Amino acid sequence: MKWNVDPVLLSLGPLAIRYYSLMFVIGFVSMEKYVKGIFQRAGKDPNLVSTLTVYIIAGTFIGARLAHVLFYDPVYYFSNPFSIIKVWEGGLASHGGYAGVIISVVLFLRKHKGINFFWLMDAIAGPCLFVGSLIRIGNFFNSEIVGKVSDVPWAIVFERVDPLPRHPAQLYESIGYFTIAMILAWMFRFKEEKLKAGSVLATAIIMSFTFRFFIEFVKDNQSTISANLPINMGQLLSIGFVSFGVILLLKIRSKKD
After folding, report:
1. How far is the C-alpha of 95 from the C-alpha of 47, rounded, in Å?
2. Interval 195-210: pLDDT, tens
3. Closest Cα partner for 34 from 161, 148, 102, 128?
4. Phi-psi label, residue 13: left if phi above 0, alpha if psi -120 to 50, beta otherwise
5. Taking the mean position of all CA atoms in its chain, how far away is CA 184?
C-alpha cells in the first residue's frame, strides 16, 4: 500500500487545518466530556473539568516539547534555541507529555483543593491514553514516526518519506494505546471500589510503556543521542517509566487501608 495523503485537511487562506491538529482536538474534547461524567458520578463539580483540561493540554505540549528537545536532538536545539518554540514544525515526545500531564494535575490541585491526586490520575489515565491513540493517527497522516523497512504484507510505502515499504508503526501504537485505554477505563469504572487509589495510574504507566518498549523495535530511531546504542531513546525512557510504575504499584499495594 502506498500512502501519500496531504496532511492538510483544509486550507482557509493562511490558515491550514491538519489531520494531526484535528486528532488533538477530538481527543481532548472527548476526554473532557468523559471526565465530566466521572466527576458527576462522584459528586464533584463537573465545571472544574474544563479548567483541568486546559492544564492537561498545556502540560502535554510543554512536557512533550521539552522532552523532544532534551532527549531527541539537543545539539540542534541548543545551537538553534529559537527553534525550540517552533512546535508547528513537529517534535513532541510522548514520554514528556506523560510527565507533563502528571505535573499539570499537581498544579491544578494546588488551586483546587479537596480532590485526591491519585483518584484524579486514575480517572484520567484511560482518557489520556485514548488521546495518545488519536495523536498517533495524526502522526500517520503526517507520514512521521515511521516504522522500519519491512516486507510484511501490510507494509506501507510512505511516499513523502521514501519509496521503501515500512511497518505502519503509528497504527500499531494507536491500536495498542486504544486497547490499554479501554482496559484502564474498565478498571476505574468497575473496579474502583476494590482497588487502592493510584492502582489504575500505576497500571497505566506499566502497560503503556512496556508496550512502547517493544513497539520501538519496529520503529526508525528518532534520537541522535541513541543512534549508536543497542536500544533507542524511546526504549531507554520507557524502562525508566516502567520501573517507576512498578515501584509505585508496590508502594500502593503495601499501604494499609
Report:
1. 29
2. 999 999 999 999 999 9
3. 128
4. left
5. 14
| CA distance readout (Å), 201 to 7, 15, 184 | 33, 38, 8
Three-state SS at 219 = strand
Report the alpha-carbon angle 163-169-174, nearest 5: 140
For the record, the C-alpha cell of 224 comes out as 541522535
Do 166 and 157 touch, CB atoms closer than 8 A?
A: yes
Whether the Cβ atoms of residue 150 and residue 166 lie closer than 8 Å to each other: yes
**pLDDT tens for residues 16-30?**
889 999 999 999 999
- Cβ-Cβ contacts under 8 Å for 248 (sequence gap 6 or more): 198, 201, 202, 205
Q: Average pLDDT, whole number, for the chain?
A: 93
Q: Which residue shows C-alpha cell 523495535?
A: 217
Q: Is 147 helix (H, G, I), strand (E, B) or coil?
A: strand
151 pLDDT more than 90: yes
Residue 149 DSSP code: B
Cell numbers of 44, please? 464533584
As a whole number of angstroms, the distance between CA 94 and CA 132 comes to 8
Tell me, what's the pLDDT at 185?
96
Helix axes 117-142, 169-191, angle to 10 degrees: 160
Torsion of CA 98, 104, 105, 106, to 10 degrees: 110
Say if CB 160 and CB 143 are below 8 A apart: yes
